[in-house]
């Protein structure tokens, strides 16, 4: 029962993709917050996407509308609707809320 519940939970969890660039201080701020939440066992899979790769950069611009990083793409696992969250502080706040919901 517990396994089934955690499987359902994982299936319903949004897909998270963080667009970043190396050396970006705002991205480092987000990484540190993610590390802190992970150490507490409150944050699992987040895909990292480095915008140094042209295809990744284009995906960010096409999807989110601008090339600014960090940007967290939150995909609803049922509707596939994507929310593009810019601003490091908002991303961290979202992660904190998400982590305490789980
Ligand atoms: N206020 C934003 C600042 C983000 C920012 O300035 N990112 C830089 C990289 S360090 C960037 O993407 N600059 C290019 C752009 O804005 O198009 C945050 O806190 O996330």
Automatic annotation (TrEMBL):
<feature type="domain" description="GST N-terminal">
    <location>
        <begin position="18"/>
        <end position="96"/>
    </location>
</feature>
<dbReference type="InterPro" id="IPR036249">
    <property type="entry name" value="Thioredoxin-like_sf"/>
</dbReference>
<dbReference type="Pfam" id="PF13417">
    <property type="entry name" value="GST_N_3"/>
</dbReference>
<dbReference type="InterPro" id="IPR004045">
    <property type="entry name" value="Glutathione_S-Trfase_N"/>
</dbReference>
<protein>
    <submittedName>
        <fullName>Glutaredoxin</fullName>
    </submittedName>
</protein>
